[in-house]
Amino acid sequence: MTNLHYDVVVVGSGPGGLAAAISARQNGAEKVLIIERDIELGGILLQCIHNGFGVEVFKEDLPGPSYAQRFIQQVHDLKIDTLLDSMVLETTPDRRLFITNRKLGIREIKAGALVFAMGCRERTRAQIRLPGSRPAGVYTAGTAQRWVNVEGYMPGKRFVILGSGDIGMIMARRLTFEGAKVERVLEIMPYLSGLTRNYVQCLQDFDIPLQLNHTVKRIIGNNRVEAIEAAAVDEQRRIIPGSEEIIPCDTLLLSVGLIPENELSRQAGVRIDPVTAGAFVDSRFHTSVPGIFSAGNVVHVYDLVDWVTQAGLAAGKGAALFAQGKLAVSDKVVRTQAGENVRYIVPHTFDPNLLAEEAIPLQMRVKQPIEAPVWVEAVCNGKSVTRKALPYARPGEMVTLNLKPDVVDSFRESGTLTVNITER
Ligand SMILES: Cc1cc2nc3c(=O)[nH]c(=O)nc-3n(C[C@H](O)[C@H](O)[C@H](O)COP(=O)(O)OP(=O)(O)OC[C@H]3O[C@@H](n4cnc5c(N)ncnc54)[C@H](O)[C@@H]3O)c2cc1C
Fold this sequence. Notes:
Layout lengths: L4 E7 L3 H12 L5 E4 L28 H14 L3 E3 L3 E5 L4 E6 L3 E12 L3 E3 L2 H4 L9 E3 H11 L6 E5 L3 H12 L3 E6 L9 H8 L6 E2 L2 E7 L6 E6 L12 E4 L2 E4 L3 E3 L2 H5 L24 E3 L10 H19 L10 E5 L3 E5 L2 E2 L1 H4 L4 E7 L7 E7 L2 E8 L8 E5 L11 E9 L1
This protein binds flavin-adenine dinucleotide.
The site of flavin-adenine dinucleotide has 36 residues, from α1, β4, β7, α4 and α5.
C-alpha cells in the first residue's frame, strides 16, 4: 500500500459502508478507501443466508450475500481501494486513522472526509446480568448464526432463546431446519422486539412458542448448559414468585439487543446520543465533528438493510462533497424532537435549504406499541407540517415519515420539528 491519503475513507464494509464508498465515488471523490477488519467485504450480510433483503432497493427478495454482492461488484467496478483483514485502532478529530494488519504493521492514513460504518455488536450475558452457573452453551444469536451459516458448526441440539429480537427469531427457524429442537423464545417485554414478519415466518410457521413477559431466572449446568429456569415477570419486570419452570436444554441463545460500535467515533470526539447510542447526525449523516460522517447501524439500529443502504448513500455523498470543499454550510438548522410516544428521531437536525431540493426521511421508533390505527404527525411552531396514517405502531418496526420539498415553507427559519405518534 503506497497511498496514505484518501479523499474519503470508509471504516466498515457492511451495507452502510459499501453504499457510502460507492456514493462517494459517484459524487466526485477520486480516491476512496474501504477498511474492513474481516477477510472479505460485506459485513454481517455474509452470514445472513436467509432471504428478505432488497425489497425496497431492488424490489427483489434476496439472501444477504446476494444483496451484498451487488454492491461489492460496484465497488470493484468503480475501482475503490479496499484494505481487508485490517483493523482501525484509532481515529482523531482531524481525520487521521491508525490501522493495523499483518503486512503493513501499523500505518497512519489521512482522510479528506471519513465515514464511520462499523455496525453494531450484540449485547451479551454480562450486559443483562444473567444469574446462574457459567457453563459452555450460552451464546449470542449472531455468534450461532455465524457458526451455522459460515463455519458449518452446530452449537447445540436443544435450544431456548432469550429475547425476541430479529436475529434470535431467524436463528430459531434456521436451527429447526438443521434438525435442532427450539423449545421456546422468552421475551421479558409484553411485546415483540423484532419484526412481526419474522415472528410469523420464523416462529409461528414452525410452531415455536413465544412467551411474552418471561425471562431466564437462572442458568443450570456445570460444564455444559443442562437447563434454564424460566419465570414470568410483572409490569416492573420483576420475577413473579411461583411462576418458575425448569426447561431442559443444552444451549441458550441471547437475542437481547444490539449496541452501535462507536468507540472510534468517541475517540474522534463525535457527540453521541444517549438514546440511540449512535452519533448525533444531520440529514447527510454529518456528525458533530466536521468531515466525519456516520452511516448504518452505527447511527441507530435499523430494521431493514435497505434503509442502511440509503443512509450509506447519503453519508457517502456528504463525505464526497466535504472532501471537495463543496458541502454547503447553512446558518439555518431545524432540530427534530421526539414527541408523544416517540423514543428518538434520526436525523437530529436538517438544513431547511436542503429540503427545498430533496425529501428528507425522518426515521424513528415508538416507545410503546399501539395496536390500533395511528397518526404519525410532524408539528412545527404549533402547526401540523405533514402526517401519515399507519395501521399500528410497534417498537420493533421503524417508522419513516418523509418530509417532502413541498413543506419547505414551514421551515423558512431555524426551529424545532416535533413528531408525535398517537392513536387515530
Ligand atoms: C450478529 C448480527 C446478526 C444479524 N443478522 C441479521 C439478519 O439475520 N437479518 C437482518 O435483516 N439483519 C441482521 N442483522 C442486522 C444487520 O447487521 C444490519 O441490518 C446491517 O448489516 C447493518 O449494516 P452496517 O453496514 O451498518 O453494519 P455491518 O453489516 O455490521 O458492517 C460493519 C462492518 O464494520 C467492520 N468494522 C467494525 N469495526 C471495525 C474496525 N475498527 N476496523 C475495521 N472494520 C471494522 C465490521 O467487521 C463489519 O464488517 C444482524 C446484525 C448483527 C450484529
